[in-house]
Amino acid sequence: MHLCLGFACGYMILGMVVGVIAREITRRKGFDAQKAKTTNLLDLHVHTFMLGMAMFLILALFAHISDFTGSVLFRWFLCIYNIGLLGMLAMLAVRGTLELKETKPSKAVNASVSGTAGLFHVTLCAGFILLFIILLSAF
Question: Cα dist. 65→68, 83, 110, 122 in Å?
Answer without folding.
Answer: 9, 26, 45, 29
